[in-house]
Write a structure and sequence with these properties.
With 79 residues, the chain is mainly α. It is 65% helix and 0% strand. It has four helices and no strands. The N and C termini lie far apart (25 Å).
């Protein structure tokens, strides 16, 4: 079963948000992968590139990214 257009839209919003936060923090995909690995997630620069390009990833990945970026608040208006 594929994603609906609305699901794809929300996924891309989340992807754009993470990309913007990474840029704001001066963190690349390689460093993000290293930080996520320290927290028990098995990610690589390549896997992160694919997830953010597609806009499809589990909420656990999204939340882990927020944690390693030390973001304590996210407003839906930011997405």
């Amino acid at each position: 079963m594929g994603l609906t257009d609305r699901e794809k839209e929300w996924g891309m919003k989340a992807s754009r948000f993470l990309k913007a936060e990474l840029k704001r923090a001066g963190i690349g995909y390689k460093e993000l992968a290293e930080r996520l690995n320290k927290h028990g997630l098995e990610e690589t620069e390549t896997s992160i590139t694919g997830k953010l390009a597609r806009g499809t990833f589990a909420v656990s990945f999204f939340l882990a990214c927020l944690a390693v970026l030390e973001l304590t608040e996210v407003s839906l208006e930011d997405l």
